[in-house]
Amino acid sequence: MDGTFSENDLSRVVAADKAHVWHHLSQHKPYETTDPRIIVEGKGMKVWDQHGKEHLDAVSGGVWTVNVGYGRESIANAVRDQLIKLNYFAGSAGSIPGALFSERLIEKMPGLTRVYFTNSGSEANEKAFKMVRQIAHKRYGGKKNKILFRDRDYHGTTIACLSAGGQDERNAQYGPFAPGFVRVPHCLEYRAADQGAPVDNYGEWAANQIEEVILREGPDTIGALCLEPVTAGGGVIVPPAGYWQRVGDICKKYDILLHIDEVVCGVGRTGTWFGYQHYGIEPDFVTMAKGVASGYAAIACCVTSERVFEMFKSDASDPMDYFRDISTFGGCTAGPAAALENIRIIEDENLLENTTRMGDYMLDQLGAMMDRHRVIGNVRGKGLFLGAELVSDRDSRTPVAEKQVQAVVSDCMAQGVIIGATNRSVPGFNNTLCFSPALIATKDDINHILSAVDGALTRVFG
Ligand SMILES: Cc1ncc(COP(=O)(O)O)c(C=O)c1O
Predict the structure, then answer these.
(1) Pocket of ligand 1 contains residue 120 by CB under 6 Å
(2) Which is it for the CA torsion 403, 408, 409, 413, positive or negative?
(3) How many CB atoms within 10 Å of residue 317?
(4) Which residues contact 458 (CB under 8 A, 6 or more apart)?
(5) Among 245, 174, 253, which residue's Cα sits nearest to residue 219?
(6) 262 lines ligand 1 (CB under 6 A)
(7) CA 262 to ligand 1 center in whole angstroms
(8) Which residues of 16-55 are buried (b: 16+ CB within 10 A; e: fewer)?
(9) C-beta of 295 in contact with ligand 1 (< 6 A)
């Protein structure tokens, strides 16, 4: 940062924020006596706040979004050029960046063919839910309309997405919810004992729990199964061996469409273009948002197979036959323009390979840290998407208090390192530290993050 502003220069901004901005997921009472943090500038892996204080960002903008890092002039230029040429036209027409980005994206997603543009992860998931419901009406007399979702998964903030939400603290006080969404058990092996699961073959057992729900509800009532490939805010849950194979078989057996929510994992986060590509899954819908344009523009997509697409154009004479959905801001051209450049950067800078290498390194180092800190009960992750679950006792696996987890996050923040933690998510289990540095992270960056966590754990837990 060039140091051209001081705290005083931003006092007006802070006052305006305190007077008028309602921050997401925030209790505002403390801001009556303290100032909110204003993030002023970013470059690479770093951001600076209103005091000019530098932070290393280990969570890509707080919510695993800025995959290619801050300050990318080439994305800004691509967006600027596009906005001057054409900023917007409704999605009933095409656009140059929309068509070219769709082509590039589909190259990365064998088996899928169609991209529906929208502007948030929640909205992308709603599109898939609506398609499932419409397919139920078109093909199954409305009966096959239920959507299965998994305990601990999150699919967004709208009422329908919360209806498919497996995190009870996210949902609490926002009901009543939409009918037709049914929960299946989570697949967190570290917590298998709490589920009464057998010691062997946990992956298959966890998948079989889905089948039990299907049989209980009636397979002819279930339209789709919606899952995160690696659960994010519910505790960075990497699926156990054998899980996905069995899930795929179950979906085929009961003619259930598979909707993979890649809002967090999509576009490189786990070291492949998409999280599901680690597991040989063949989805019918893939939704994505955050990393699609790394936060340089708001863009999200609901991508489908041709089989799904074909179901919406069988009778051109029927005015109700097609997908009668509108997304106003799905027609913004800044999104696909930024997303095209985002893909180019990931390819030209070999960021998938870097993500795998740095992710493996970080996971190893977090594992090694378990020797020094008994409070770390379990570490897990895929690529640069990692979690460390904190427990007060390794045998009983009792979660530490959320307050202590937040104390670790605050200690890191004081050291100038921004890490995350599960919060307002699963009651009693908001005890996992979360790491999702940008895909450009170097070994030095990872060491810097680890050393901050090491110090914080020592100070908070001894
Ligand atoms: C897995 C997952 N799906 C969907 C969403 C919702 O995305 P958005 O906040 O863009 O609506 C999120 C947001 O955190 C998410 O983590």
Answers:
(1) yes
(2) positive
(3) 5
(4) 373
(5) 253
(6) no
(7) 9
(8) ebeeeeeeeeeeeeeeeeebebeebebebbbbbbbebeeb
(9) no
Q: How many angstroms separate the CA atoms of 92 and 328, rounded?
A: 10
The answer to whether 302 and 295 have CB atoms below 8 angstroms apart is no
**CA 418 to chain centroid:** 18
Phi, psi dihedrals of residue 393, rounded to the nearest 5°? -150, 125
- Rounded to whole angstroms, how far apart are CA atoms 210 and 388? 26
Cα 268 from Cα 339, distance rounded (Å): 13
291 lines ligand 1 (CB under 6 A): no
Q: Kindly list the domain boundaries of the chain, sorted by start residue.
A: 7-66+350-461, 74-348
The answer to whether 185 and 194 have CB atoms below 8 angstroms apart is no
For residue 6, name the pLDDT band (cuts at 50, 70, 90): low
* Chain segment 391-450, per-residue pLDDT in tens: 999 999 999 999 999 999 999 999 999 999 999 999 999 999 999 999 999 999 999 999
**Contact between residue 260 and residue 276 where contact means Cβ atoms under 8 Å apart:** yes
Neighbour-count burial of 209, counting CB atoms closer than 10 A to its CB (0-12 exposed, 13-18 middle, 19+ buried): middle
Domain 74-348 has CATH 3.40.640.10: yes
CA of 77 to the centre of ligand 1 (A): 27
**Which residue's alpha carbon is nearest to atom 3 within ligand 1?**
155
Average pLDDT over residues 346-350: 98
SS3 of residue 389 by DSSP: strand
* CA distance linking residue 143 with residue 411, whole number of Å: 52
Find the mean pLDDT for residues 95-122. Answer: 98
Dist. CA 116 → ligand 1 center (Å): 17
Cβ of residue 127 lying under 6 Å from some atom of ligand 1: no
Distance CA 389, CA 281 (A): 27
Backbone φ and ψ of 136, nearest 5°:
-60, -45
38 Ramachandran zone, left/alpha/beta (phi>0; psi -120 to 50):
beta
Residue from 59, 263, 264, 423 whose mutation best tests the ligand 1 pocket (most atoms within 8 A of CB): 263
Q: Is 264 in the pocket of ligand 1 (CB under 6 A)?
A: yes
The CATH number that domain 7-66+350-461 falls under is 3.90.1150.10
379 residue type, one letter: V
Q: Check if 131 has its Cβ closer than 6 Å to any atom of ligand 1.
A: no
User: pLDDT tens digits for 119-133?
Assistant: 999 999 999 999 999
Residue 96 phi, psi (nearest 5): -60, -55
Q: Is 154 in the pocket of ligand 1 (CB under 6 A)?
A: yes
Whole-model pTM: value is 0.97
